[in-house]
Amino acid sequence: MSNATPSLAGTRITSLLDANSFVEIGKSVTARSTDFNMTETKAPSDGVITGSGVIDGNLVYVYSQDASVLNGTVGEMHAKKISALYDLAMKTGAPVIGLVDCAGLRLQEATDALEAFGSIYLKQTLASGMIPQITAIFGTCGGGMAVVPALTDFTFMEAKKGKMFVNTPNALEGNHVDKCDTASADFQSQETGLIDGTGTEEEILGQIRQLVSLLPSNFEDNDSFVECADDLNRTCDDLAACAGDTSLALSRIADEGLFFETKKNYGKDVVTGFLRLNGATVGAVANRTEIYNEEGEKTEEFDGTISARGARKAAAFVKFCDAFDIPVLTLTNVTGFKATLCNEKMMAASIGEMVRAFADATVPKVNVVIGKAYGTAYVAMNSKSVGADLVYAWDSAEIGMMDASLAAKIMYPGADAASLNEKAAEYRNLQSGVESAAARGYVDTVIAPADTRKYVIGAFEMLFTKREDRPAKKHSAV
Protein backbone atom coordinates (compact mmCIF):
# COMPACT_ATOMS: atom_id res chain seq x y z
CA MET A 1 0.00 0.00 0.00
CA SER A 2 1.39 3.33 -1.06
CA ASN A 3 -0.24 5.74 1.38
CA ALA A 4 2.29 7.69 3.39
CA THR A 5 0.01 7.58 6.41
CA PRO A 6 -1.98 4.35 6.10
CA SER A 7 -5.33 4.15 7.82
CA LEU A 8 -6.01 1.82 10.72
CA ALA A 9 -7.87 -0.42 8.27
CA GLY A 10 -4.77 -0.63 6.08
CA THR A 11 -2.48 -1.23 9.05
CA ARG A 12 -4.60 -4.21 10.10
CA ILE A 13 -4.17 -5.75 6.67
CA THR A 14 -0.39 -5.33 6.62
CA SER A 15 -0.17 -6.73 10.17
CA LEU A 16 -2.19 -9.78 9.16
CA LEU A 17 -0.43 -10.66 5.90
CA ASP A 18 3.11 -11.66 5.05
CA ALA A 19 5.35 -8.62 4.57
CA ASN A 20 4.89 -6.72 1.30
CA SER A 21 2.38 -9.25 -0.03
CA PHE A 22 -0.79 -7.14 -0.14
CA VAL A 23 -2.12 -6.08 -3.53
CA GLU A 24 -5.06 -3.67 -3.34
CA ILE A 25 -8.03 -4.13 -5.65
CA GLY A 26 -10.54 -1.35 -6.42
CA LYS A 27 -8.55 1.42 -4.77
CA SER A 28 -10.14 4.12 -6.94
CA VAL A 29 -13.74 3.07 -6.31
CA THR A 30 -15.78 5.70 -4.49
CA ALA A 31 -19.40 6.40 -3.66
CA ARG A 32 -21.55 7.38 -6.63
CA SER A 33 -24.59 8.65 -4.73
CA THR A 34 -25.28 12.39 -5.01
CA ASP A 35 -28.20 12.59 -2.59
CA PHE A 36 -27.97 14.60 0.66
CA ASN A 37 -24.87 16.50 -0.53
CA MET A 38 -22.85 13.29 -0.89
CA THR A 39 -20.95 14.87 -3.81
CA GLU A 40 -19.26 17.17 -1.30
CA THR A 41 -18.14 14.24 0.89
CA LYS A 42 -14.95 12.42 0.00
CA ALA A 43 -15.16 8.65 0.34
CA PRO A 44 -11.80 7.14 -0.62
CA SER A 45 -12.22 3.46 -1.52
CA ASP A 46 -15.80 3.95 -0.30
CA GLY A 47 -14.72 3.05 3.22
CA VAL A 48 -13.37 -0.44 2.60
CA ILE A 49 -9.93 -1.62 1.49
CA THR A 50 -10.03 -4.83 -0.54
CA GLY A 51 -7.30 -6.96 -2.05
CA SER A 52 -5.23 -10.13 -1.90
CA GLY A 53 -2.10 -11.25 -0.11
CA VAL A 54 -0.52 -14.31 1.46
CA ILE A 55 -0.29 -15.83 4.94
CA ASP A 56 2.64 -18.22 5.31
CA GLY A 57 2.67 -18.42 1.53
CA ASN A 58 -1.06 -19.19 1.24
CA LEU A 59 -3.21 -16.92 -0.94
CA VAL A 60 -6.02 -15.11 0.89
CA TYR A 61 -8.43 -12.31 0.06
CA VAL A 62 -9.01 -9.56 2.62
CA TYR A 63 -11.39 -6.68 3.10
CA SER A 64 -10.92 -4.16 5.89
CA GLN A 65 -13.53 -1.54 6.73
CA ASP A 66 -12.21 1.97 7.30
CA ALA A 67 -14.02 3.72 10.16
CA SER A 68 -12.31 7.01 9.22
CA VAL A 69 -14.37 7.16 6.00
CA LEU A 70 -18.06 7.87 6.66
CA ASN A 71 -17.69 5.87 9.91
CA GLY A 72 -17.11 2.73 7.89
CA THR A 73 -20.76 2.65 6.81
CA VAL A 74 -21.73 0.21 4.07
CA GLY A 75 -22.81 1.97 0.91
CA GLU A 76 -23.58 0.61 -2.53
CA MET A 77 -20.02 0.57 -3.86
CA HIS A 78 -18.62 -0.54 -0.51
CA ALA A 79 -20.80 -3.65 -0.66
CA LYS A 80 -20.09 -4.25 -4.34
CA LYS A 81 -16.34 -4.25 -3.63
CA ILE A 82 -16.78 -6.99 -1.02
CA SER A 83 -19.03 -9.00 -3.35
CA ALA A 84 -16.47 -8.71 -6.16
CA LEU A 85 -13.77 -9.92 -3.78
CA TYR A 86 -15.86 -13.02 -3.05
CA ASP A 87 -16.21 -13.67 -6.78
CA LEU A 88 -12.42 -13.66 -7.14
CA ALA A 89 -11.98 -15.88 -4.09
CA MET A 90 -14.42 -18.48 -5.40
CA LYS A 91 -12.81 -18.46 -8.84
CA THR A 92 -9.31 -18.99 -7.44
CA GLY A 93 -10.23 -21.14 -4.42
CA ALA A 94 -8.81 -19.03 -1.59
CA PRO A 95 -10.15 -17.97 1.84
CA VAL A 96 -11.83 -14.61 2.51
CA ILE A 97 -10.97 -12.70 5.68
CA GLY A 98 -13.15 -9.76 6.71
CA LEU A 99 -11.86 -7.15 9.17
CA VAL A 100 -15.01 -5.42 10.44
CA ASP A 101 -15.29 -1.89 11.87
CA CYS A 102 -18.60 -0.53 10.66
CA ALA A 103 -21.32 1.88 11.80
CA GLY A 104 -23.96 0.06 9.75
CA LEU A 105 -25.71 0.79 6.48
CA ARG A 106 -25.27 4.22 4.89
CA LEU A 107 -28.57 6.02 5.31
CA GLN A 108 -27.91 8.46 2.46
CA GLU A 109 -27.91 5.60 -0.06
CA ALA A 110 -31.02 3.81 1.19
CA THR A 111 -32.23 1.08 -1.17
CA ASP A 112 -29.06 1.18 -3.30
CA ALA A 113 -27.07 0.27 -0.20
CA LEU A 114 -29.61 -2.35 0.88
CA GLU A 115 -29.66 -4.04 -2.50
CA ALA A 116 -25.88 -4.17 -2.74
CA PHE A 117 -25.59 -5.33 0.87
CA GLY A 118 -27.89 -8.26 0.17
CA SER A 119 -25.42 -9.44 -2.47
CA ILE A 120 -22.84 -9.95 0.30
CA TYR A 121 -25.19 -12.39 2.01
CA LEU A 122 -25.66 -14.20 -1.30
CA LYS A 123 -21.93 -14.46 -2.01
CA GLN A 124 -21.24 -15.70 1.51
CA THR A 125 -23.89 -18.38 1.15
CA LEU A 126 -22.55 -19.49 -2.22
CA ALA A 127 -19.00 -19.58 -0.84
CA SER A 128 -19.99 -21.64 2.23
CA GLY A 129 -18.35 -25.06 2.06
CA MET A 130 -16.31 -23.95 -0.95
CA ILE A 131 -13.73 -21.65 0.66
CA PRO A 132 -13.05 -20.90 4.35
CA GLN A 133 -14.50 -17.60 5.57
CA ILE A 134 -13.13 -15.76 8.60
CA THR A 135 -14.32 -12.54 10.26
CA ALA A 136 -12.59 -10.37 12.84
CA ILE A 137 -14.57 -7.65 14.65
CA PHE A 138 -12.48 -4.68 15.80
CA GLY A 139 -15.18 -2.05 16.24
CA THR A 140 -18.92 -1.98 15.73
CA CYS A 141 -20.70 -4.82 13.92
CA GLY A 142 -24.39 -4.09 14.31
CA GLY A 143 -27.75 -4.61 12.67
CA GLY A 144 -27.58 -6.37 9.33
CA MET A 145 -23.79 -6.40 9.50
CA ALA A 146 -24.02 -8.81 12.45
CA VAL A 147 -25.35 -11.44 10.06
CA VAL A 148 -22.06 -11.37 8.13
CA PRO A 149 -20.01 -13.15 10.83
CA ALA A 150 -22.92 -15.56 11.35
CA LEU A 151 -22.53 -16.61 7.70
CA THR A 152 -18.78 -17.16 8.01
CA ASP A 153 -16.99 -20.18 9.44
CA PHE A 154 -14.89 -18.54 12.16
CA THR A 155 -15.21 -15.21 13.97
CA PHE A 156 -12.83 -13.37 16.29
CA MET A 157 -13.61 -10.30 18.37
CA GLU A 158 -11.47 -7.57 19.96
CA ALA A 159 -12.06 -7.87 23.70
CA LYS A 160 -12.61 -4.21 24.58
CA LYS A 161 -13.64 -2.24 21.49
CA GLY A 162 -15.47 -4.96 19.59
CA LYS A 163 -19.28 -4.68 19.62
CA MET A 164 -21.61 -7.13 17.89
CA PHE A 165 -25.40 -6.94 17.98
CA VAL A 166 -28.54 -7.18 15.88
CA ASN A 167 -30.38 -4.97 18.37
CA THR A 168 -28.40 -2.77 20.74
CA PRO A 169 -28.44 -3.73 24.44
CA ASN A 170 -30.60 -0.69 25.28
CA ALA A 171 -33.19 -1.67 22.65
CA LEU A 172 -33.87 -5.03 24.31
CA GLU A 173 -37.03 -5.15 26.41
CA GLY A 174 -36.20 -4.93 30.09
CA ASN A 175 -32.47 -4.55 29.48
CA HIS A 176 -29.87 -1.81 29.65
CA VAL A 177 -26.22 -1.91 28.70
CA ASP A 178 -25.25 -1.49 32.38
CA LYS A 179 -27.39 -4.51 33.27
CA CYS A 180 -26.19 -6.81 30.47
CA ASP A 181 -23.95 -5.69 27.64
CA THR A 182 -25.19 -8.12 25.00
CA ALA A 183 -22.91 -6.53 22.40
CA SER A 184 -19.69 -7.24 24.30
CA ALA A 185 -17.07 -9.79 23.40
CA ASP A 186 -17.66 -11.63 26.68
CA PHE A 187 -21.40 -12.04 26.05
CA GLN A 188 -21.01 -12.98 22.40
CA SER A 189 -18.27 -15.55 23.04
CA GLN A 190 -20.01 -17.18 26.01
CA GLU A 191 -23.68 -17.04 25.03
CA THR A 192 -24.13 -17.03 21.24
CA GLY A 193 -21.63 -19.59 19.98
CA LEU A 194 -20.48 -17.32 17.15
CA ILE A 195 -17.12 -16.18 18.52
CA ASP A 196 -14.08 -18.44 18.26
CA GLY A 197 -11.57 -16.23 20.03
CA THR A 198 -11.20 -12.87 21.76
CA GLY A 199 -8.21 -10.76 22.70
CA THR A 200 -6.24 -7.71 21.68
CA GLU A 201 -6.01 -6.70 18.04
CA GLU A 202 -2.52 -8.18 17.82
CA GLU A 203 -3.63 -11.45 19.42
CA ILE A 204 -6.60 -11.80 17.08
CA LEU A 205 -4.50 -11.26 13.95
CA GLY A 206 -2.05 -13.87 15.26
CA GLN A 207 -4.89 -16.34 15.85
CA ILE A 208 -6.16 -15.83 12.30
CA ARG A 209 -2.70 -16.43 10.85
CA GLN A 210 -2.40 -19.67 12.83
CA LEU A 211 -5.87 -20.82 11.80
CA VAL A 212 -5.27 -20.11 8.10
CA SER A 213 -2.05 -22.15 8.23
CA LEU A 214 -4.08 -25.15 9.45
CA LEU A 215 -6.95 -24.94 6.96
CA PRO A 216 -7.13 -26.01 3.32
CA SER A 217 -7.57 -23.15 0.86
CA ASN A 218 -10.75 -24.66 -0.55
CA PHE A 219 -12.82 -27.84 -0.53
CA GLU A 220 -10.67 -29.44 -3.25
CA ASP A 221 -7.29 -28.57 -1.73
CA ASN A 222 -5.39 -31.80 -1.10
CA ASP A 223 -2.01 -30.15 -0.57
CA SER A 224 -2.49 -28.68 2.92
CA PHE A 225 0.24 -30.81 4.49
CA VAL A 226 3.47 -29.85 6.21
CA GLU A 227 6.50 -31.97 6.90
CA CYS A 228 6.25 -33.59 10.31
CA ALA A 229 9.37 -33.36 12.46
CA ASP A 230 7.69 -35.01 15.45
CA ASP A 231 8.14 -38.72 16.22
CA LEU A 232 5.18 -40.63 14.77
CA ASN A 233 5.61 -43.34 17.41
CA ARG A 234 6.05 -40.94 20.31
CA THR A 235 4.38 -42.17 23.48
CA CYS A 236 2.39 -39.75 25.64
CA ASP A 237 3.08 -41.03 29.12
CA ASP A 238 1.08 -38.29 30.87
CA LEU A 239 -1.96 -38.54 28.61
CA ALA A 240 -4.16 -40.42 31.09
CA ALA A 241 -3.73 -37.52 33.53
CA CYS A 242 -5.17 -35.18 30.87
CA ALA A 243 -8.39 -37.15 30.35
CA GLY A 244 -10.40 -34.49 32.21
CA ASP A 245 -9.17 -31.48 30.23
CA THR A 246 -9.11 -32.85 26.71
CA SER A 247 -7.75 -29.62 25.24
CA LEU A 248 -4.53 -30.61 27.03
CA ALA A 249 -4.87 -34.23 25.88
CA LEU A 250 -5.20 -33.14 22.26
CA SER A 251 -2.14 -30.91 22.54
CA ARG A 252 -0.18 -33.89 23.90
CA ILE A 253 -0.92 -36.09 20.90
CA ALA A 254 -0.60 -33.31 18.30
CA ASP A 255 2.52 -32.72 16.21
CA GLU A 256 4.79 -30.36 18.14
CA GLY A 257 2.09 -30.08 20.84
CA LEU A 258 0.06 -27.50 18.87
CA PHE A 259 -3.75 -27.55 19.24
CA PHE A 260 -5.94 -24.66 18.02
CA GLU A 261 -9.16 -24.58 20.01
CA THR A 262 -12.31 -23.02 18.53
CA LYS A 263 -15.21 -21.46 20.44
CA LYS A 264 -13.37 -22.10 23.69
CA ASN A 265 -15.74 -19.98 25.81
CA TYR A 266 -18.97 -21.59 24.55
CA GLY A 267 -20.29 -25.03 25.46
CA LYS A 268 -17.13 -25.70 27.47
CA ASP A 269 -18.07 -29.32 28.23
CA VAL A 270 -17.13 -30.08 24.60
CA VAL A 271 -13.77 -29.21 23.07
CA THR A 272 -13.43 -28.52 19.34
CA GLY A 273 -10.37 -27.50 17.36
CA PHE A 274 -7.61 -28.37 14.93
CA LEU A 275 -4.30 -30.19 15.29
CA ARG A 276 -1.81 -31.76 12.95
CA LEU A 277 -1.03 -35.48 12.96
CA ASN A 278 1.86 -36.54 10.74
CA GLY A 279 1.67 -33.10 9.12
CA ALA A 280 -2.01 -33.35 8.13
CA THR A 281 -4.76 -31.24 9.68
CA VAL A 282 -7.33 -33.14 11.75
CA GLY A 283 -10.47 -31.74 13.38
CA ALA A 284 -11.05 -32.84 16.97
CA VAL A 285 -14.19 -33.10 19.11
CA ALA A 286 -13.83 -34.20 22.73
CA ASN A 287 -15.85 -34.34 25.94
CA ARG A 288 -14.37 -32.37 28.84
CA THR A 289 -14.89 -32.61 32.59
CA GLU A 290 -12.21 -30.17 33.81
CA ILE A 291 -10.42 -26.99 32.75
CA TYR A 292 -6.92 -26.09 33.91
CA ASN A 293 -5.17 -22.76 33.47
CA GLU A 294 -1.58 -22.21 32.35
CA GLU A 295 -0.40 -22.53 35.96
CA GLY A 296 -1.90 -26.00 36.24
CA GLU A 297 -4.74 -24.89 38.52
CA LYS A 298 -8.23 -26.32 38.02
CA THR A 299 -10.55 -23.42 37.16
CA GLU A 300 -13.77 -25.19 36.16
CA GLU A 301 -15.35 -28.62 36.54
CA PHE A 302 -18.20 -30.34 34.68
CA ASP A 303 -20.29 -33.41 35.45
CA GLY A 304 -19.40 -35.55 32.42
CA THR A 305 -22.61 -34.87 30.49
CA ILE A 306 -23.15 -33.16 27.13
CA SER A 307 -24.95 -29.82 27.20
CA ALA A 308 -27.19 -28.54 24.41
CA ARG A 309 -24.60 -25.87 23.66
CA GLY A 310 -21.80 -28.40 23.54
CA ALA A 311 -23.76 -30.55 21.10
CA ARG A 312 -24.51 -27.58 18.80
CA LYS A 313 -20.87 -26.57 18.90
CA ALA A 314 -19.75 -30.08 17.96
CA ALA A 315 -22.30 -30.34 15.14
CA ALA A 316 -21.25 -27.09 13.47
CA PHE A 317 -17.59 -28.03 13.73
CA VAL A 318 -18.04 -31.51 12.22
CA LYS A 319 -20.06 -30.03 9.34
CA PHE A 320 -17.19 -27.65 8.56
CA CYS A 321 -14.64 -30.47 8.66
CA ASP A 322 -16.74 -32.64 6.37
CA ALA A 323 -17.23 -29.79 3.88
CA PHE A 324 -13.46 -29.28 3.59
CA ASP A 325 -12.46 -32.94 3.71
CA ILE A 326 -10.76 -32.64 7.11
CA PRO A 327 -10.66 -35.97 9.04
CA VAL A 328 -12.38 -36.02 12.43
CA LEU A 329 -11.00 -37.41 15.70
CA THR A 330 -13.22 -37.75 18.77
CA LEU A 331 -12.23 -38.40 22.38
CA THR A 332 -15.26 -39.82 24.20
CA ASN A 333 -15.80 -39.54 27.94
CA VAL A 334 -19.51 -38.99 28.59
CA THR A 335 -22.16 -40.27 31.00
CA GLY A 336 -25.35 -38.70 29.61
CA PHE A 337 -27.07 -35.44 28.74
CA LYS A 338 -27.17 -32.32 30.88
CA ALA A 339 -30.32 -32.43 33.01
CA THR A 340 -31.42 -28.82 33.54
CA LEU A 341 -34.53 -26.94 32.48
CA CYS A 342 -32.52 -24.54 30.34
CA ASN A 343 -30.73 -27.35 28.49
CA GLU A 344 -33.88 -29.43 28.04
CA LYS A 345 -35.43 -26.67 25.90
CA MET A 346 -32.93 -27.39 23.13
CA MET A 347 -31.46 -30.75 24.11
CA ALA A 348 -33.20 -33.10 21.67
CA ALA A 349 -32.74 -30.70 18.75
CA SER A 350 -29.08 -30.09 19.58
CA ILE A 351 -28.23 -33.77 20.02
CA GLY A 352 -30.06 -34.45 16.77
CA GLU A 353 -27.83 -31.89 15.04
CA MET A 354 -24.72 -33.55 16.43
CA VAL A 355 -25.78 -37.09 15.50
CA ARG A 356 -26.71 -35.93 12.00
CA ALA A 357 -23.37 -34.19 11.58
CA PHE A 358 -21.39 -37.30 12.53
CA ALA A 359 -23.60 -39.63 10.52
CA ASP A 360 -23.60 -37.41 7.41
CA ALA A 361 -19.83 -36.86 7.42
CA THR A 362 -17.98 -38.97 4.86
CA VAL A 363 -14.46 -37.94 5.93
CA PRO A 364 -12.30 -40.40 7.89
CA LYS A 365 -13.68 -40.63 11.43
CA VAL A 366 -11.78 -42.13 14.37
CA ASN A 367 -13.14 -42.37 17.92
CA VAL A 368 -11.09 -43.01 21.06
CA VAL A 369 -13.03 -43.85 24.23
CA ILE A 370 -10.88 -42.42 27.01
CA GLY A 371 -13.21 -42.79 30.00
CA LYS A 372 -16.86 -43.53 30.55
CA ALA A 373 -19.14 -44.03 27.56
CA TYR A 374 -22.70 -44.49 28.74
CA GLY A 375 -26.07 -44.69 27.04
CA THR A 376 -27.20 -42.78 23.99
CA ALA A 377 -24.73 -40.01 24.80
CA TYR A 378 -21.98 -42.50 23.92
CA VAL A 379 -23.85 -43.49 20.75
CA ALA A 380 -24.12 -39.82 19.72
CA MET A 381 -20.39 -39.19 20.19
CA ASN A 382 -19.20 -40.68 16.88
CA SER A 383 -19.73 -44.30 17.90
CA LYS A 384 -19.35 -47.09 15.35
CA SER A 385 -23.13 -47.32 15.08
CA VAL A 386 -23.41 -43.78 13.68
CA GLY A 387 -20.48 -44.14 11.28
CA ALA A 388 -17.07 -44.09 12.98
CA ASP A 389 -14.58 -45.95 10.79
CA LEU A 390 -12.34 -47.06 13.65
CA VAL A 391 -12.96 -47.07 17.40
CA TYR A 392 -10.20 -47.43 19.96
CA ALA A 393 -10.65 -47.55 23.72
CA TRP A 394 -8.23 -47.07 26.56
CA ASP A 395 -7.82 -50.17 28.71
CA SER A 396 -9.35 -48.23 31.61
CA ALA A 397 -12.51 -47.22 29.69
CA GLU A 398 -16.08 -48.24 30.49
CA ILE A 399 -18.70 -48.70 27.76
CA GLY A 400 -22.31 -49.56 28.49
CA MET A 401 -25.86 -48.49 29.17
CA MET A 402 -25.08 -46.78 32.47
CA ASP A 403 -22.98 -47.00 35.62
CA ALA A 404 -22.94 -50.62 36.80
CA SER A 405 -24.07 -49.77 40.36
CA LEU A 406 -27.09 -47.85 39.11
CA ALA A 407 -27.96 -50.64 36.68
CA ALA A 408 -27.88 -53.17 39.53
CA LYS A 409 -30.24 -51.03 41.64
CA ILE A 410 -32.71 -50.81 38.77
CA MET A 411 -32.60 -54.52 37.90
CA TYR A 412 -32.71 -55.74 41.52
CA PRO A 413 -34.90 -53.34 43.50
CA GLY A 414 -34.98 -54.10 47.19
CA ALA A 415 -31.76 -56.16 47.19
CA ASP A 416 -29.35 -55.69 50.09
CA ALA A 417 -26.05 -53.88 49.70
CA ALA A 418 -23.95 -57.04 49.41
CA SER A 419 -26.16 -58.42 46.64
CA LEU A 420 -26.16 -55.11 44.81
CA ASN A 421 -22.36 -54.95 44.91
CA GLU A 422 -22.14 -58.49 43.59
CA LYS A 423 -24.61 -57.82 40.77
CA ALA A 424 -22.90 -54.52 39.93
CA ALA A 425 -19.55 -56.31 39.58
CA GLU A 426 -21.18 -58.94 37.39
CA TYR A 427 -22.85 -56.28 35.22
CA ARG A 428 -19.58 -54.37 34.93
CA ASN A 429 -17.77 -57.50 33.79
CA LEU A 430 -20.43 -58.66 31.32
CA GLN A 431 -21.77 -55.36 29.97
CA SER A 432 -19.63 -52.33 30.89
CA GLY A 433 -16.09 -53.61 30.48
CA VAL A 434 -14.16 -52.42 27.45
CA GLU A 435 -13.28 -56.01 26.58
CA SER A 436 -16.99 -56.82 26.40
CA ALA A 437 -17.50 -54.04 23.83
CA ALA A 438 -14.45 -55.22 21.89
CA ALA A 439 -15.77 -58.80 21.84
CA ARG A 440 -18.91 -57.53 20.12
CA GLY A 441 -16.96 -55.51 17.56
CA TYR A 442 -17.99 -52.10 18.92
CA VAL A 443 -14.34 -51.38 19.74
CA ASP A 444 -11.66 -52.32 17.23
CA THR A 445 -8.63 -52.25 19.53
CA VAL A 446 -8.05 -51.74 23.24
CA ILE A 447 -4.97 -49.55 23.73
CA ALA A 448 -2.86 -48.06 26.50
CA PRO A 449 -3.38 -44.30 26.87
CA ALA A 450 0.29 -43.59 26.17
CA ASP A 451 0.00 -45.20 22.73
CA THR A 452 -2.90 -43.04 21.54
CA ARG A 453 -0.87 -40.81 19.23
CA LYS A 454 0.65 -43.61 17.18
CA TYR A 455 -2.66 -45.46 16.89
CA VAL A 456 -4.66 -42.47 15.63
CA ILE A 457 -1.88 -41.50 13.20
CA GLY A 458 -1.91 -45.04 11.85
CA ALA A 459 -5.69 -44.99 11.59
CA PHE A 460 -5.81 -41.79 9.56
CA GLU A 461 -2.98 -42.99 7.33
CA MET A 462 -4.97 -46.13 6.60
CA LEU A 463 -8.16 -44.14 5.97
CA PHE A 464 -6.51 -41.55 3.72
CA THR A 465 -8.11 -42.91 0.54
CA LYS A 466 -11.54 -43.46 2.10
CA ARG A 467 -14.52 -42.98 -0.22
CA GLU A 468 -18.10 -43.28 0.97
CA ASP A 469 -21.36 -42.57 -0.84
CA ARG A 470 -24.63 -41.36 0.61
CA PRO A 471 -28.20 -41.80 -0.71
CA ALA A 472 -28.92 -39.45 -3.62
CA LYS A 473 -30.79 -36.32 -2.46
CA LYS A 474 -30.51 -32.55 -2.62
CA HIS A 475 -29.62 -32.10 1.06
CA SER A 476 -30.91 -33.00 4.51
CA ALA A 477 -34.25 -31.37 5.31
CA VAL A 478 -33.35 -30.38 8.88
Structure commentary:
This protein has 2 domains: 8-212, 2-enoyl-CoA Hydratase, Chain A, domain 1 (Alpha-Beta Complex), CATH 3.90.226; 225-397 and 433-462, 2-enoyl-CoA Hydratase, Chain A, domain 1 (Alpha-Beta Complex), CATH 3.90.226. It is α/β, with parallel strands linked by helices and 478 residues long. Helices cover 33% and strands 21% of the residues. Strands 10, 11, 12, 16, 18, 19, 20 and 21 form an 8-stranded mixed β-sheet that branches. A 7-stranded mixed β-sheet has the order 1-2-3-4-5-7-9, with helices on both faces. The protein has helices at 8-16, 76-92, 110-127, 147-150, 185-192, 201-214, 246-253, 308-323, 341-344, 347-360, 375-380, 404-411, 417-432, 434-439, 452-462; strands at residues 23-25, 48-55, 58-65, 96-100, 133-137, 140-142, 154-158, 163-165, 197-199, 259-262, 270-277, 280-287, 290-292, 298-301, 305-306, 328-334, 336-337, 365-374, 390-394, 398-400, 445-447. The protein is built from 15 helices and 21 strands.
Number of strands: 21
Remind me, CATH topology of the largest domain? Answer: 2-enoyl-CoA Hydratase, Chain A, domain 1
The percent range for strand residues is 15-25%
Q: So what's the CATH class of the largest domain?
A: Alpha Beta
Task: Spell out the CATH superfamily of the largest domain.
Answer: 2-enoyl-CoA Hydratase, Chain A, domain 1
Major sheet attributes: 8 strands, mixed
As a whole number of angstroms, the C-alpha radius of gyration is 25 Å
Q: In CATH terms, what is the architecture of the largest domain?
A: Alpha-Beta Complex
Give the N-to-C terminal Cα separation: 46 Å
Q: What is the average per-residue confidence, as pLDDT, rounded to a whole number?
A: 91
Q: Could you list the spans in which at least 5 consecutive residues all have pLDDT below 50?
A: none
Tell me, briefly, the overall form: globular
- Alpha plus pi helix count: 15
Number of structurally distinct domains: 2
Secondary-structure class? alpha/beta
Pfam family, one: Carboxyl_trans
InterPro entries: AccD/PCCB, AcCoA_carboxyl_beta, ClpP/crotonase-like_dom_sf, COA_CT_C, COA_CT_N
Protein name: Acetyl-CoA carboxylase carboxyltransferase component
